[in-house]
Every structure is written in C-alpha cells, then in structure tokens.
Amino acid sequence: MSVPSAALEQLMSRISDRAEDAARLTRDLIRFPTINPPGEDYGACAEFIGDRLKARGFEVSYHRALGAPGDTDRYPRINVMARRDSGKPGPCVHFNSHIDVVAPGQGWTLDPFEGVIRDGRVYGRGACDMKGGLASSIIAVEALLDSGLDLPGAIEISGTVDEESGGYGGVAWLAERGFFSPPRVDHVIIPEPLNVDRVCIGHRGVWWAEIETRGRMAHGSMPFLGDSAIRHMGAVMERFERDLYPALAARHSDMPVVPEEARQSCLNINSVHGGEGEQFEGLPSPLVADRCRMVIDRRFLIEEPLDTVKGEVRQILDALTRDRPGFSYGLRDLFQVEPSMADRDGPVASAAARAVRRVLGREARFVCSPGTYDQKHVDRIGKLKDCIAYGPGVLELAHQPDEWVGVDDMVDAAKVMALATITLLTPGG
Fold first, then answer.
1. Which class is domain 205-337?
2. How far apart are the C-alpha atoms of 233 and 291, rounded to whole Å?
3. Which of 163, 164, 290, 386 is catalytic?
4. CB neighbour burial string for 348-370, b if at least 16 within 10 angstroms, e if fewer
5. pLDDT at 398 over 90
6. Is 100 a catalytic residue?
7. pTM score, whole prediction
8. Residue 163 is among the residues annotated as catalytic for this protein
C-alpha cells in the first residue's frame, strides 16, 4: 500500500497547525509534579493521559505495579496503557514515555511546575525529559487518526513510571506481564530527548555497587588502638586513581555514544559515608570509624563483559586485602544493566531515519545514550529488539534548572513519529 504524497503533505500541515496544542499539552503535563522519588501524582497524570486518549477511541487501562520497589498505598505506581486497534491485521507501533521527573532542585528562575510558554519554548521540570516527547507522540497519533488514512494494525501509547529510578515499577513490571513483547507489540519508539535529528539505537551498560571497608572502633584521642575504615576507603580510592581510572580512559567503544567523551568507560564515585551519620549536626563523638561505605556508578561499553567489569574492581579490593594490614571489605550489587543496541537497519530505526530526512531535509545521526533508559527492559525482558529512542528536546537540558523543550522541535518530532508510524504499519510504506 502506497500513501499518496498529497496525503502526506496534508498530514504534515495538520501537525504544523497543532503547535499550540502541543505546547498546551506539554504545559498541562508539567503541572502534574510527578517527582520521583517518592512518586507523586502518578495516578492523576496517568488519568489525564488516559482521558484524552479515551476520547479518541483508545481502549485505556491502568496498571498498578503491586510489589514493585517504592509502590505503597500513599505512592502507588500507576501506569496507563492505551491501544487503538484498526480491526485489520497488521503490526503494532507503541510509543512509550515515562511520566516521572526528577526533583526540581535549585537555580530556577521560574516556577518549575507552572509550564511557562515563552518565546517558542515550554519551560518546566520534565519539559525536555520527557513530557514534551509524550505530547509529541500524542499529537502525532491524533493527527494520523484525523487524516483519514486507512492504516492496518494497532497503535499504542503508554505513560509509565519510575524510569528515573530504574523503571522497575513501570516498563520492567509491564514487560514481565507481556505488554512489550510480540505478538502484542512489534515496534517501540521511546520519545526521550536525544535531539530531534538523532535516532538513538541503544545505551551503555551500568553497574552500581556498594563497597564497604571495615575497621575497629576506638577513642579518637587514641586512634592507634583502633583501625580506621575511612583510611581503608582512602586506600581504595588511591588504587582507583592509580590503576582503574587510567585503564578505563584507554577503552573506547564502536557504539556511537554521545557526547563523544562518553565513548570511553567511566567510573563515578556517587557517595562516601563513614563515621558520623550524614544528617549529623553538632559536635561529633571522638571515635575511630569502624565502617565506611562507597557507592560507585560504573558505565561500561558493549565490548566489555559485565563479569570483567565487576572482576577488575574485586581484584583491586583483593589486592588490598593481601597488601594492607587489617583491610577487609564487602561488595554488594545495587543495580546492573547490560548495554543494549538495536540494528540501525532494523524496521523502526530505518523508518525514523527516513522520516527525519523528509521532515528536516538532512540525514539522521544514529547515536547511543550515555545513560540507560527503558529500552533495557523492552530488550532484556520483553525480548523485543526493534526499539529506539527518538524525540524532541536537547539532551544536555535534561535534569537542569530552567529545563525547556522547543515547540518547533515538538512539531518536527511529531511529524517524524507520524511518518515512521505510516511506514511501519503500511506494507511497502
């Protein structure tokens, strides 16, 4: 089935005419302060999305991730799933967006949850990451429905939670129940903010772990009677500086990770806690610390096996156990995700790239994300490889004060999403 060029041009014009609608929809979504943690306003935001899509003929359902991390009666993990089936055999294209946002933090010059529309931008926490992308996908699908094109198959839109904390109450929970697997779904587009002319085909891996060093408590005036766990942790950090950081800096990936600096392996020391508690105020007790904990955030490449990533940290700790008197440690996994990368010649990546070329007049750039996003669960749990991230928003604005998304970028992204959907649903499209 071939769609006439005139029909496509009318569709593009229809989306252009909805720029104000896209901006207002983004504003309305921002006004739900869905801060994670703890997981505020998930239900209200999900119902807002569901009500809009139900009015357009979607079958809407809500799914609380009972038993997922963070799910409580006060902060239930509520996801919304909407499906519109044409009644004719064909594939299913799914647009997945997370509705949770990080805390606003300091440094804002305007209300982070007002959704201010100014000078062609929508400002607010989540504007870029990723309520602008969610709005673009809704605008794209609504314009397709209004175009009158006789498309087979089905279209789904979901608003899921907890992506900012790993996605375990959102896409992971749903994927375990078949919502992101064939034959229900064939192609997934996640409108994360990777810039409107980029098609993101995957992400690096991540391993979070906690290292604990152990010592012996003593009076602070007689530290020679104790054994400082903090000094032992200092030795760990020194070995990281001497041995691990240089080794990581020398490793580079063939994955097209952006920015360029993220094509190498890296390690961030997320936090260090020892001695008095983090919230302690006043004069401390004169004690030698008997425990010290460090949380590490290791980002690794598709060329690096996870066992090797873990093993090189353990080798340093084991070497210190042999070399440093009194040194002992514990190592605990907190979170791990292996790298994921879709085929750039696969159906969804190539359809999006062709649409970028048509809408923007230039070739799309295939990239990979420096951090993970919910593709990891679609891939590993749903066993669905045909998944990409594509959406409006400048990657570097995510989680920043005065976060914003450009209205023109939302319109262009909606056009790309609509054209890609036609290609994926239409044989020979």
1. alpha beta
2. 9
3. 163
4. bbbbbbbbbeebeeeebebbbbb
5. yes
6. yes
7. 0.91
8. yes
